[in-house]
Structures are given as C-alpha cells and as structure tokens.
Amino acid sequence: MYDYNKDENVGGDALDYGRSAVSEAHELTKKLIKKKIKRAQIQKEQAKAAAEAGKQSAKATAEVSKKAAEEAAKIGKALFDAGRRLVSSLVELIIENPIIAVILVVIVVCIIVLHVVKVDLLSLFGSMSESVVAGTYTAYDEDIIGVNSDYTKLEKELRKTINNTESDFPGYDEYEYQLEEIGHNPYELISYLTAAYENFTRRDMKPVIKELFDAQYNLTYTPRTETRSRTVTKYGIENGKVYSYQEIEYYTVSILKVKLNNKGLGSVIASKPLSDVQRARYNLLLETKGNKPDLFEDLYTDIEIPDDIEVPPEALTDQTFAAMIAEGEKYLGRAYVWGGSSPSQGFDCSGFVCWLLNHSGWSVGRTDCNGLKAKCTVVSAEEAKPGDLIFFKGTQKNKAGATHVGIYCGNGIMLHCGNPIQYTSIESNYYRKHFLCYGRLP
Fold first, then answer.
1. Does 148 share its domain with 255?
2. Are residues 207 and 342 in the same domain?
3. Does any domain span residue 102?
4. Which member of 35, 53, 172, 262 has the greatest number of CB atoms within 10 A?
5. How many structural domains is the chain composed of?
6. pLDDT of residue 302
C-alpha cells in the first residue's frame, strides 16, 4: 500500500527548497547590482581625477611655455644686441682700415670661385672619364690581334689567288692585270667592331669580317680576243732573182683581264648602318687608336723626317718631272687611305703614284706596287734620276715583292703617300732597311 503521508512530506520539503533558492538568487542579484554601481562610481571618480590632472598639466605646460618664450626673447635680444655691436665694430674697423674690406671681398670671391671650380672640375673629371672609356677598345688584346690576323689572312689568300691566275686559267696568250693595292687599316677595322659589337671575341667576328672583306674587294676575270696586225718580211723570185717585200699580217690573241677593285675598308664602314652614337664612337676610337697606339705597327708613318728637304731646282727643268711634282704637291698633307686612288677618295702609296703618272704623260691605269714595278726597267742607284720610281719591300707583313712606292726627286728624297703625303728622306734608317730598287718607265 502506498504511503500518502510520505508524499505530503516530500512536497513540503521541495517547496521549502524552492523558496530558499529564490531568496538566495535575489540576494545575489542585489549584490551584483551594488558591485556594478560601485564600479561605475569608481570609473567616474577616475575620469574626474584624470580631467583634473589634465587641467593641471595644461596649466603647467602653459606656464613653462610662457617662461621659455620669455627666456628665448631675452636670449634673442641679447644676440641681436651682440650682433649689432659686432657689425658696428666691423663697420668702424673697415672705415678706419679700408684694406680689410678688400681682403673680405677677396675671401668671399675666392670661396665662390673655389665652389664653382670644384663643381666644374667634378664635371670635367666625369667627362674625361667618360671620354677615356668611350675612346678605348674594350675587347681583349688577343681577340683584337686575332681578328686583325684573320682579316690579313683573307687578304693573303686573295693575293695568292691572283698570283695563281696563269696556272688556274691556262691557255691565254696574254694576261692583263689591273690591280689596286691590297691592305687595310687595322684601326679602322677594330674601331668599327668595337663601336658595333663592343667587347667582341675573335670567334664571333669571323662571319662579320668575311662580310667586310667581300664588300671591300672585288676580283673579276674578263676574257677577250683582240685582232692585231704586224708587218712581216716575205720573199719572192722574179727573173731568177730573190727579192724581199713587206706585208701586213693579221692575227688574233686571247687575253684574260684580271681586275681587282679595292673599295677601301673605310668606305665600307661608312656605308654601314651605325647609329649616331655608334658613328661618333667609331670616329673617337679611330682618333685615339683605342688608347692602344702601339697595338699595330704603323707601316706608313715616317720615322725620320729632316727639316731641310727640298726638290733640286735643276730637276724641275724637266717638264715631265715638273708636271708630276706640281700635281703631287696639290695633295701634300693628306692622310693615307687604304685602297685610295683619287683626290675624292684619297690615296694609298700606289694609287698616288699611278695618279701622278697618269696626269703627267703616262698611262699606267690603276695597279699596285708590283704592277708598277713590272712596267719599269730596274736601274742602279747611280743611274737613278728625278722622275724614276723607288720601290721598297717588307713594309707590310705577309706580302712579297714591292710593298711601297714613291717618286724619286733626287738629292736622296722622294715624294710619296706615307702618312700623310709628303717629301721624305730615303736615307732614314727605316727606308734604307726596306729599300728594294729604282725603276724607270719607258
């Protein structure tokens, strides 16, 4: 049987427990509210204290600033008074001693000048530094020398090809040579390569120099036949007697014309599409020789040039020689131009001599030193006279035979295209060492 009295007791206990819990929660809430109110009061007091502190700080700062301004004013006034007294003293001193004013002015001017000079010197040194760099070859010397050697090798092979003409093209009755000088200015070559390719290498430049070489030289072979006549003596018999008579006979000869044109490396480079900056760089490098003037031997610069060179007056009584000299002196002082053969183009040694001969009674065309020598009869030094040609050997590396030519003028001098065109003593050590022979044209 269930005990209802027990349930009543349990319910009463639960009610009492609930009332107790509500009472405790109410007390806890009251405590929390009081704590929050107290915290708010504390924060309000703190804010009030901070505001008061701020007011006090601002007041103190204002007082300090005021005092600092007063002190600064006092110091400024003192400095102004001191400066005024100093200026006044200086003025009185200058009035009493004018020389001091001059000295002060000089000092100020010197300071200004030194400042300006300092700036200008810095600019000058900067410009000089840039110019030195721009006027210097940037490739390694071994690459520079190697590239020039490769170009010279191409020229040597060209010369060999010309020398082998008669064996390579047999069967002709005659071979006619019209050859311009073979050679180049190494400084033109390296200056161009530096301006166009900067610090180049020998390997990379092989196709470049081949292109330059092919543009500079043009070798052609032109065959032709020519009908000629000659007078021959023939014999006949009449009335039992032998008699002679002359008759014109016609015959045909086969001729191979071998012609070499040298446009000149300088002209080839002038046609290259360089920018304005590159062109200016090229001209500067050519002028400075890349700041390496001894890198290549200048074969056409005279070593010893006497001051008393003069053509013998008696030699000028020969009209042909006088005409040659008159034409040659028009071009005195002009620089040597590799492959040059005219006043507009410039001259090399053989081009200059050919020009003079062609304008004073001969017709030699345009040929090189060996071509001119082949047209001459060799004469001894004792027989040589003004108007003869004088030949030299060994003035160019890897070239056989005559390598330089001039016009002999008598008294141990010659007119030639050295560097520049000029009169030169043939008694100098250089030309004595390289002398080959004298030659006289028919």
1. yes
2. no
3. no
4. 262
5. 2
6. 42
Lowest mean pLDDT among 38-47, 219-228, 324-333: 38-47
d(CA 347, CA 341): 5
Please tell me the distance from the alpha carbon of residue 289 to that of residue 9, in angstroms, as a whole number: 128
d(CA 128, CA 119) in angstroms, rounded, equals 14
Q: Quick check: pTM over 0.70?
A: no
Q: Is the dihedral of CA 106, 110, 116, 121 positive or negative?
A: positive
Residues paired with residue 232 on neighbouring β-strands, in sequence order: 247
Query: Do 287 and 170 lie in a common domain?
Result: yes
Tell the residue number behind the tokens 């009610």, with chain if given.
Answer: 15
Residues 177 and 264 in one domain: yes
Q: Are residues 270 and 348 in the same domain?
A: no
Q: Using alpha carbons only, give the angle 122, 124, 128 rounded to the nearest 5 degrees.
A: 120
Quote the DSSP letter at residue 336: B
Residue of 10 and 372 predicted with greater confidence: 372
Do 209 and 149 lie in one domain? The reply is: yes
Task: Let me know if 323 is exposed, middle or buried by CB neighbors in 10 A (0-12, 13-18, 19+).
Answer: middle
- In the chain, what percentage of residues exceed pLDDT 90? 47
**Which residue in 398, 397, 393, 400 sits closest to 433, CA to CA?**
393
Q: Which amino acid is at 198?
A: E
The pLDDT of residue 410: 92
* Enclosing domain of residue 433: 313-440
How far apart (Å, rounded) are the C-alpha atoms in residues 353 and 372?
9
d(CA 61, CA 69): 12
